[in-house]
Amino acid sequence: MRTEPFSLRLSSPLATASGAIEAREGFLVRYDHRDETGIGEATPLPGWTESLADCERALDRAAEAEVSGGHTAAMLELAADTVPAARHGFATALLDADARADGVPLYRWFDADRRCESVPVNATVGDGDPTETADAVERAVDGGFDCCKLKVGARAVAADVDRVRAVRERVGADVTLRADANGAWSREQASEAFDALAEFGVAYVEQPLAADDLAGHADLRGGPVGVALDESLAHQRADTVLAADAADVLILKPMALGGPGNAHTLALRARERGIEPVVTTTIDGVVARLAALHVAAAVPDIGACGLATGDRLGGDLAPDPATVTDGEMTVPQTDGLGVDPAEVRQDA
């Protein structure tokens, strides 16, 4: 097991609850297994995963354990609930090597019977006034996207409703609209927003309430606008979230869940309970984006996912084999993740 640090500048700062992020820093993980070298990526994100320092320490412990105990011992050092990004890095490298050894793309390692050429993806539009927001969505639709997610919650509810109204009037009824409040609303504000957004056919609102308010989210369900949970999965056990019947949709970030395998398992568990999975990235490098893409490709009939995030980076770890055309991201059909570990460089 070998790790290499990297830093990728963002094309523009990423606003988070922990402050603005100008670069994504993490570690490439390489692991030799079954006569193949697998590649993984551990890219912590404040508020979602462990810190960069904790990620590095966890990977160091796992590397030491692997020397005497192999990959099983290494995985035991990487708990998904405390160091999910570190676990994601090693788990992805292990899965990449396994899929390469079996001669299949990673999504078919999860489900040998699956055949998937592409996955639908959404465009994400940030905060702006009604005209700016409608302009941005129109550009996305002209670029082939038929599903757009609007950031809401930074303004008064009425102002966000005006923005959604402007978008719907501009692009018509055929474009799927989603909203993401990032936990910004109170229960009263969320109720007001859901009532108003129903008029404009908003499919769901992502994380309308605080991450720990599962009861409040459960109360919002049942109307024409669905409830999607995102941050809740970073702060609560998945079993707790599922048991609360608090979501119509689960937003699954493999980096925050401890790896592609965990995300795939949770996607299938959600489906069994009638909850739709949506797979997204945490603004990662190409290795982790491909891992998330393969998770989505392994889920039958999955809806638009938040995977088209490569343009947020000013540079990347390797050329991206997955292209986006008409709102669909191509799924590599070569072995493993679809990127040659030898072509992945921390200084790319």
UniProtKB/TrEMBL annotation:
Record Pfam families: MenC_N, MR_MLE_C
Required cofactor(s): a divalent metal cation
Catalytic activity: (1R,6R)-6-hydroxy-2-succinyl-cyclohexa-2,4-diene-1-carboxylate = 2-succinylbenzoate + H2O
HAMAP family: MenC_1 (MF_00470)
Protein keywords: Lyase, Magnesium, Menaquinone biosynthesis, Metal-binding
Functional pathway: Quinol/quinone metabolism; 1,4-dihydroxy-2-naphthoate biosynthesis; 1,4-dihydroxy-2-naphthoate from chorismate: step 4/7; Quinol/quinone metabolism; menaquinone biosynthesis
Domain Mandelate racemase/muconate lactonizing enzyme C-terminal, chain residue ranges per copy: 130-224
Active site: 151, 253
InterPro entries hit by this protein: Enolase-like_C_sf, Enolase-like_N, Enolase_C-like, Mandel_Rmase/mucon_lact_enz_CS, Mandelate_racemase_C, OSB_synthase_MenC1, OSBS_N
Protein task: Converts 2-succinyl-6-hydroxy-2,4-cyclohexadiene-1-carboxylate (SHCHC) to 2-succinylbenzoate (OSB).
Region ranges (Disordered): 318-348
Assigned EC number: 4.2.1.113
Root EC class: lyase
Protein name: o-succinylbenzoate synthase
Keyword Disulfide bond annotated: no
